[in-house]
């Protein structure tokens, strides 16, 4: 079983910066990030995983100004620093194929892989936030299909550049005076629909051959890109039944693409809230949600139900809703959530404005039970954990859930290898230009 | 007096990887880089300065395969890692305005500045290597004038993005629930000849306001860009008289651009070879040059004299040369060098193939004398030191030259401040959208 930590400096939950004991300044305080990464490494996590976004203004200002998620370190700047203060944990950075250049991305991830002795991973995203385009000279977001075709070609160029040098190209023959062997250098000369890139890369082949490829696309095009290229799929959270369907679909797509399905790891994101008792965990979540400003939660609720919720009585249950064309399934999800936990309009707004994806809320034993069930029932190969609050939520997970998983023989008690590929049980890719 | 270290993992000299005691694998061995940076910090250097190039194939293969300078870490990936293992030394990364995107560069340098608590600097280059264009979908290098106009606009966008947030924008008011003050956020909305960038940046204003701006352009356009924007100018080495002329020119240009000339520091690059005696230093340089392969040196010599040198007797003095239109001044420089040091064709070839810029070769006292003369005669405000060999050349500089400069009261004995601006005596720029 594999565990990634899906990190935001103050967690993904928009109220978490106000939680007792939180570090509200963590977005730009490296000391805190270092502490988190080192604790995760003590917990033998496979990877520290950093999300990324290329714009700010994608929420109404009323909500935006109350959220700590608005700014943070650039992942490809943060992770090298974390590499220098950790030894084993993998380091996965998100980078966009829509707004970056393949030559630059290839050398940055290759450099990170060398710096970290083989611990780099690249989360390929095509960037769905439409506002990002405005920061890159474009009037509007590129079409979804174009984004994914560009993403596929981007991947081909980057992996081709990583293969510029054979693993044994650098002779460093001090006596003879030859630094490298020109016969072990390949000039890519890529010409495609979106890119023309000559190469070679001015960085040696990465320690891992290629950094680990991660992908989180949900659409058909996204799944297909993942099936063809990804080694880790970061699935959106859902029920076990949905998870199993996604798991089967992805493994089948990988096989159809001629790959070994075992080399595609499915790690759904899950939001974890830990308590000594179930009640304590639920209270903790309620406290967390209560820290979301009602006005900003209302915006999320209105979007989710496809209907302006600002006139509703905040302390009453959700009134009967007119049908919505915009988001039938979104509306149903909210209705189910309200029914299951008897939530008022205020609670629902705060839940949706905070974090509304799948959550595991309970004692360490209960959380381990759920994780075990997902693994045993082929719902996933592990999880990308989102901590409810930092630092305590992370410390509790490493201190209480990890030992429980270890006791059950589900999770490593020490790193067996040194690279992220070692941790994930992934093979080192051969060099397409210099076969073994 | 200010000291930067102009670093390549195995020095700028193409024979240095073969020097006794060198680390031939340093290009991708972070342990060595960490050692260098920490030693420089013990020596109170202002900054660790990392060059950058965006292509490999800009030399004939005969020379290329013998040079360790062909590949190395991406600077913006290396420097965050060095930030995590140092406390005070400045960290200057080279980044190209011709091939990068301003939104990405703004957030990377801002992130580095936050990570390092205010130690970032950006060496703005327009990238003169024509091969780089081929890695970015272009058939040929952009015109020199266009490169510099794009560079100037790029700078405007990046500094504008750094000013997206007032220094006090982030309230982090846990009680009231407001993370930032929308009135202290500026949307840039830049529309120019080369870029359209809405903003705001998704990173808080850098610790230093703006990272320190460095520039090394030599042409008129390059000098003008530096006069308008740079705070450190990395001058090419030359004689003291040339240095004085450059110094005067740059200070005057800065004043003409309405700036305080004291806020533009001129730091020529100089290659330093240290010995216990002058003879020892000269022998060391001769040994270093002898490690350059004759064939690769010949290519450099032929270019410098504008004439194929492969038919010359390697062990004789340079024969009389036919006049060259291509490089009259280059030819004269070689003739002067040959006469001054009685160099044979082989020596000249190896000197030019190794490192042929201005060098300080001698005892620590002699080197301190020369540096003192440059400072006192207004030839520079300090130096960007290129070490002859690593690690010994760096250790010798920090262990022998720095103490001599300190004894003379020319160089600090401890860092007085914490940021690169503090070290350089540069003011923190105000925010153009939120004046104090
Ligand atoms: C758990 C998870 C994390 C994600 N992280 C990012 C991210 O950091 N940056 C980003 O631009 N998109 C991120 N995405 C969005 C996906 O890359 C993708 O755009 C989204 O799932 C929609 O799928 P589609 O692009 O296939 O339509 C994430 C998605 C999921 C499910
Ligand atoms: C000491 C020194 C270091 C330089 N370092 C770099 C570098 O790392 N990357 C780069 O592309 N250019 C570098 N340059 C080149 C300059 O940016 C500039 O292109 C060159 O001096 C020619 O001047 P011009 O561009 O004004 O014509 C350097 C120049 C000097 C003098």
Automatic annotation (TrEMBL), chains A, B:
Read off the Pfam families from this record. Answer: Bac_luciferase (PF00296)
Per its UniProt entry, which superkingdom is the organism in? Bacteria
InterPro entries in UniProt: Diverse_substr_monoxygenases (IPR051260), Luciferase-like_dom (IPR011251), Luciferase-like_sf (IPR036661), NTA_MOA (IPR016215)
Does Cell membrane show up as a keyword for this record?
no
Entry keywords, A to Z: Flavoprotein, FMN, Monooxygenase, Oxidoreductase
Limits of the Luciferase-like domain: 22-377
Q: Which residue ranges run through the membrane?
A: none
Q: Which CDD domains match?
A: Nitrilotriacetate_monoxgenase
Q: Which family does it belong to?
A: Belongs to the NtaA/SnaA/DszA monooxygenase family.
Q: What is the protein name stated in its UniProt record?
A: LLM class flavin-dependent oxidoreductase
């Amino acid at each position: 079983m594999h565990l990634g930590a899906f990190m935001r400096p103050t967690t993904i939950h928009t109220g978490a910066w106000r939680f007792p004991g939180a570090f509200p300044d963590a977005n730009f305080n490296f000391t805190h990030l270092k502490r988190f990464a080192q604790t995760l490494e003590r917990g033998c996590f496979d990877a520290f995983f950093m999300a990324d976004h290329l714009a700010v203004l994608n929420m109404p200002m009323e909500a935006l100004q109350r959220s700590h998620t608005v700014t943070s370190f650039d992942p490809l700047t943060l992770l090298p620093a974390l590499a220098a203060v950790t030894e084993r944990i993998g380091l996965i950075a998100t980078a966009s194929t829509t707004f970056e250049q393949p030559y630059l991305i290839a050398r940055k991830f290759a450099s990170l892989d060398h710096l970290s002795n083989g611990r780099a991973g690249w989360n390929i995203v095509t960037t769905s936030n439409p506002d990002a385009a405005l920061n890159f000279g474009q009037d509007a977001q590129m079409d979804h299909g174009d984004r994914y075709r560009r993403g596929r070609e981007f991947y081909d160029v980057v992996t081709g550049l990583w293969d510029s040098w054979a693993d044994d190209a650098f002779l460093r023959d001090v006596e003879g005076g030859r630094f490298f062997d020109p016969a072990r250098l390949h000039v890519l000369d890529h010409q495609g629909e979106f890119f023309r890139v000559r190469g070679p890369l001015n960085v040696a082949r990465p320690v891992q051959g290629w950094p680990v490829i991660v992908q989180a696309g949900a659409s058909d095009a996204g799944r297909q890109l993942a099936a063809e290229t990804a080694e880790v799929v970061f699935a959106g959270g859902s029920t076990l039944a949905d998870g199993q369907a996604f798991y089967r679909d992805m493994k089948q797509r990988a096989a159809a693409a001629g790959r070994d399905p075992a080399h595609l790891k499915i790690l759904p994101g899950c939001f974890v809230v830990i308590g000594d008792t179930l009640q304590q965990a639920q209270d903790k979540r309620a406290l967390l949600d209560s820290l979301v400003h009602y006005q900003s939660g209302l915006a999320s609720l209105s979007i989710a139900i496809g209907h302006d919720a600002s006139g509703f009585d905040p302390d009453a249950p959700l009134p009967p809703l007119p049908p919505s064309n915009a988001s039938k399934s979104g509306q149903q999800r909210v209705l189910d959530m309200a029914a299951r936990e008897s939530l008022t309009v205020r609670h629902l707004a705060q839940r949706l404005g905070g974090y509304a994806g799948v959550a595991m809320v309970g004692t360490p034993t209960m959380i381990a039970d759920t994780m075990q069930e997902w693994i045993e029932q082929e719902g996933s190969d592990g999880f990308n954990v989102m901590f409810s609050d930092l630092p305590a939520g992370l410390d509790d997970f490493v201190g209480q859930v990890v030992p429980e998983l270890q006791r059950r023989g589900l999770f490593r008690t020490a790193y067996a290898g040194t690279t992220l590929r070692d941790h994930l049980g992934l093979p080192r890719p051969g060099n397409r230009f210099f076969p073994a």
